[in-house]
Structures are given as C-alpha cells and as structure tokens.
Amino acid sequence: MTAEEAIECIENLRNGKTALVRIQQNDFLQFRQELIKQPDFKHFRGIAKHGGHAEYEYMKTPRS
Q: Is 63 inside a domain boundary?
C-alpha cells in the first residue's frame, strides 16, 4: 500500500463512501503512519482481527 492509497482509504471512510476498511498485516504500518497525521484521528476505530489484519471504521463521535 502506498501513502496515496492509504489516504484514499481514510478519505473514503471519512466521507462515508465505505463503512469499513480492511487493512492487511503487511499494509498496516503504512496505513497507520498516514492515519495518525489526520486531525480527526480519534474518530477512527481500528479492530485487530485474527491473521494479523485490522478493520477500521469512522465514528461520528471521537473515542476517548
């Protein structure tokens, strides 16, 4: 995954184009690097799954 692809996934979540994004284990670090740069970082929720992948969703209210 490139930085541009990660940003596209983040934008799709933010805009509601997709409800859930599944990130594979080998793409996680690149995706997270771009995600933590976002001003609304606390609105994204990541859920670790078996097999090393993670699923991210965008929440209307930020997590604490």
A: no
User: Which residues have a Cβ under 8 Å from the Cβ of 23 and sit 6 or more positions away?
Assistant: 1, 9, 31, 46, 53, 54, 55, 56
How does pLDDT run across 1-59, given as a tens digit for each residue?
Answer: 999 999 999 999 999 999 999 999 999 999 999 999 999 999 999 999 999 999 999 99
Which has the closest alpha carbon to 32: 64, 3, 8, 61?
3
Q: How many domains does the chain have?
A: 1
Is the model's pLDDT at 64 over the cut of 90?
no
Contacts of 58 (CB under 8 A, 6+ apart): 13, 14, 16, 43, 44, 45
Domain that holds residue 19: 3-58
